[in-house]
Task: inverse folding
């Protein structure tokens, strides 16, 4: 964010944005935090699947996360944040403590899946666990397969087991940064059997997966894609 924008935000941000309290922080593993936020605003908002919450992670650097648990009665929203280690969002999640106050923007729409009730195949990485869990919890959309490419497979398997996610394959990210052929074939198999495809995570991986699906004749109307981060960008979205 430019110096001008930052100055402007420090003047108007406090008036324009909602404040929420951090109710609880759970260090679920070395690189994941479950962060429970509390506010009156969460009692009235109507959260839809895949919605996002943008958080001032400090110095008016906003970063985007997905509510995975929504408890309207008590005005609570839970986030699962991956600490990849290289940005203000990751740094904030490492240091955040219960009792902290945050400025937030949202929750609001991030993407919409097609109305079709076709089962889903979901492909992503550590950042897609929250949205996948929120889809699975709603139970209105069957999921045929979930594929997460991860840096630490054991850690991610533990997280998905703790969150009781079904039909998950956790595989290692390739060292060259490309999506693995095994992941592509796994998504293709489900796509050929009629599944709708949801791609989240790194922009470059989504592009690679889309290109391959297109070249294999899968109609793009059956693909929903939402980039959550990109190698050379900060604070995508
Ligand atoms: C709609 C939406 C929903 C999201 N939901 C979640 C969620 O529920 N949980 C979650 O953990 N994340 C989620 N993300 C992703 C998260 O917002 C990004 O990873 C964000 O970039 C983190 O901010 P940062 O300040 O840590 O890094 P930034 O300052 O944004 O990026 C710095 C550098 O770090 C690298 N980087 C960024 N993210 C990652 C990553 N995940 N893995 C490896 N390297 C990375 C990039 O190379 C980037 O150039 C979501 C993003 C969007 C758009």
Result:
């Amino acid at each position: 964010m430019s110096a001008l924008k930052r100055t402007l935000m420090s003047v108007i941000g406090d008036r324009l944005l909602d404040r929420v309290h951090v109710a609880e922080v759970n260090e679920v593993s070395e690189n994941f935090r479950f962060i429970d936020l509390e506010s009156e605003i969460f009692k009235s908002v109507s959260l839809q699947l895949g919605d996002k919450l943008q958080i001032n992670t400090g110095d008016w650097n906003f970063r985007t996360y997905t509510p995975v648990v929504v408890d309207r009665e008590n005005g609570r929203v839970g986030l699962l944040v991956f600490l990849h280690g290289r940005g203000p969002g990751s740094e904030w999640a490492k240091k955040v403590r219960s009792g902290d106050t945050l400025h937030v923007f949202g929750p609001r729409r991030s993407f919409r899946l097609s109305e079709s009730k076709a089962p889903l195949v979901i492909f992503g990485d550590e950042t897609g666990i929250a949205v996948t869990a929120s889809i699975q919890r709603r139970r209105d959309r069957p999921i045929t397969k979930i594929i997460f490419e991860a840096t630490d497979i054991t850690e991610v398997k533990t997280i998905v087991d703790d969150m009781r996610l079904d039909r998950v394959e956790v595989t290692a990210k390739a060292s060259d940064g490309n999506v693995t052929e095994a992941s592509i074939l796994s998504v293709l198999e489900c796509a050929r059997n009629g599944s709708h495809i949801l791609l989240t995570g790194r922009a470059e991986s989504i592009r690679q997966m889309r290109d391959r699906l297109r070249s294999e004749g899968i109609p793009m109307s059956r693909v929903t894609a939402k980039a959550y981060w990109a190698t050379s960008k900060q604070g995508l979205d």
The radius of gyration is 18 Å.
